[in-house]
Write a structure and sequence with these properties.
Elements: E1 3-8, H1 12-22, E2 28-34, H2 37-47, E3 51-54, H3 63-73, E4 78-83, H4 88-97, E5 101-104, H5 109-120, E6 125-126, H6 128-139, H7 150-160, H8 165-172, H9 176-190, H10 195-204
Parallel strand pairs: 1-2, 1-3, 3-4, 4-5, 5-6
Length: 209
C-alpha cells in the first residue's frame, strides 16, 4: 500500500529536502505541500492524504490550532509533527490537538520513514525526548508551587491583580524586559502560553490565594 503524504513547512529548503528523501521510497508518495497552515489545510482537504507531516511554528495558522482544524476537517489523515521545538508548550498542545506523532528535525531519515509508515497505520510515534516529556506530564500533571521562584510568584500575583508589564516593572523596580522574561518562565512552568491562562491555571493549582 502506498502512503499518500502532504508536507507543511514554511521553509522551502526543508520541503525540498523532505521531497528528495521521500522520492527514494516507493511506498511513500508526496501528493501535496504547503508553506503554512492555512494552505496546508486546503491542500489536505483537496488531497485527502494518509499522513500530514507538519512543522509547528509557522506564520499565520500553525501549531495546535492548525492540527485541531486539520483533524476535524480531514479526520482520515494522521498528523505527524516534524519540528525543531520540543518544549512542553509545543509538545503537549500538539498531542492534545490530535497529532499522532512528534519527531525532531534532527531525527535520522530512516526514523522519519518508519514514523510516517507507523502513523499511516494509526500507531503513535514519539521521539525519545518527546516521549519523556509526555510521560513526565502524565505522572505529574500539576506542577508544584515550589517550581516557581519567589520573584516569579510576585510577578504572577501582580499580573493576576491586573498589572501591566510596565506597572509590574515599576512596582518591582526592574525593567519591562525582565518582567517579560519572568512571565516566559512562568508560562513554561505552568504549561501555558499567555497571561490569562497563567492566572487561571495558577488559581486552579492553588498557586494564588
Amino acid at each position: 500500500m502506498t502512503v499518500r503524504l502532504v508536507i507543511v513547512d514554511d521553509h522551502p529548503v526543508v520541503r525540498d529536502g523532505l521531497r528528495g528523501m521521500f522520492v527514494e521510497q516507493a511506498d511513500l508518495e508526496i501528493v501535496g505541500e504547503a508553506g503554512d497552515g492555512a494552505e496546508g489545510l486546503a491542500v489536505a482537504v483537496r488531497e485527502q492524504p494518509d499522513v500530514v507531516l507538519t512543522d509547528l511554528r509557522m506564520p499565520g495558522l500553525g501549531g495546535a490550532e492548525f492540527i485541531g482544524l486539520l483533524t476535524a476537517r480531514v479526520p482520515s489523515a494522521q498528523v505527524l509533527v516534524l519540528t525543531t521545538y520540543d518544549g512542553d508548550d509545543d509538545v503537549l498542545p500538539a498531542v492534545a490537538a490530535g497529532a499522532i506523532g512528534f519527531l525532531l528535525k534532527d531525527s535520522p531519515r530512516e526514523e522519519v520513514f518508519r514514523a510516517v509508515r507507523a502513523a499511516a497505520a494509526g500507531e503513535t510515534v514519539l521521539s525519545p525526548a518527546v516521549a519523556a516529556r509526555v510521560l513526565r506530564r502524565v505522572r505529574d500533571p500539576a506542577p508544584r508551587a515550589a517550581e516557581l521562584s519567589e520573584r516569579e510568584h510576585t510577578v504572577l500575583r501582580l499580573v493576576a491583580g491586573g498589572a501591566t508589564n510596565k506597572e509590574a516593572a515599576a512596582a518591582l523596580f526592574i525593567s519591562e524586559t525582565t518582567v517579560k522574561t519572568h512571565l516566559a518562565h512562568i508560562y513554561t512552568k505552568l504549561g501555558v502560553s499567555d497571561r490569562a491562562a497563567a492566572v487561571a491555571t495558577a488559581y486552579t493549582r492553588g498557586l494564588l490565594p
